Each structure stands twice: as structure tokens, then as C-alpha cells.
Amino acid sequence: MRLGGQLLVVASSPATAKAILKTHDRVFSGRFLLSICYAIPGTLQSYTMRSTSTECSGMFEYANCIIMDLFSSLREVESKGKVRKEKVLMEMMEYLVEKEGEVVKLDDVLKVTVCNIFANVVASRNLLGYEGWGNGQMVKDLVDEIGKMMATPGLVDLFPVLRRVDFWGKRDGKILQRKVMCVWEGILKEGRSRKSVDLNTYILLIT
Known about the structure:
Blueprint: E1 2-3, E2 6-7, H1 14-23, H2 35-39, H3 47-50, H4 58-72, H5 75-98, H6 106-123, H7 137-151, H8 155-158, H9 167-192, H10 199-206
Antiparallel strand pairs: 1-2
């Protein structure tokens, strides 16, 4: 069955599904991503995006090897990242304890926590705050926008024949790219000024 550009395989039983996966493991190793993911300028040249290809080709395996090599070379960043992640999680727990008996938006709390974990690993600082978004309002809006885009199929996802004339998708991709670059520009500048940060961290971000 096809749901737009996504191929859906239906098995009659768990045993049949297991047999299909064993026989066609390489074919089903691809990842389906919405068209908006490929509409962002530069994503087709990104090794990270190539590693989430809909096909498990030679490039798929090559990109995965490169990314794994980058991760394995970031031992120092990884060890420091663990400490920073625990720090952010402790801040989250302290905030929830302070709010005991009050209504708390867990969705917002989780967004702040995830963004701060990533920002602490890369730049050793929090990106957002729990009490009032302040300067992080743009980041919050960007996270919300990306979440909605990734969860909402576009016309091209339902009608792949329109891919060549997907001008609206390309427009949205460029807008999203500008917003992401605007958010990360300050963080990367701060990170580059820190001598203790491994260069491979930025290679990983670029890919």
C-alpha cells in the first residue's frame, strides 16, 4: 500500500512480518521523512540527512560510518556532556519541586530541558529558562514550528507527482533555515571562542 510517498507493508500475522523483515532487511532499513526535511537548503548535501535516506544504499552506510566516527572521537565532550546533562536534569527537578501543588505545563518543561541539554553539551550554557521565556521565546517558537512541520504531511507527501513544482515547500524550507541559523549563530560564536571545545563538535553540527 502507498500513503502518498510512503510505502506501507501490511503483514497478515506477526510471524509473516518477521519473515518479511528477515528477507528484506536492507530494503526496510530506510527512514521515511516528510518532504519539508529535504526542502531545507543544504540538507541533501548533509551526511546526517543522507543517513536517514529512504533507501539503504552505499551512501546510507557510508554516512552512518562517518557519523559514528565523529561520535567516537568526541570522548571528552561526551564525558563533560554527561555532567552537564545531569546539571540540567537537576534544575528541572528543582523547578518541579518549587511548583508543587501548582499547575505546570509539562510540554514546556520538557522543551526547555531538551534544548538546555543540547546547548550545555555544545556551549556550556542554558538556552532557555523555566520562568518566562525571555530571550528564548524565539527558540520556543522555532521548536514548536519544527514540531508541527515534522508532524504535518504536505501536499507533496500525499501527491509525489507535485514534487517538481513544490515552490511552497522550498519557500518554507528557506524560512526555517534562516530561523535555525539565526538561533545557532550566537551559540556557535560563543563555542568557537572556547579553547576547550573539540573541533569535532562543530563538524558534527555542520553535518
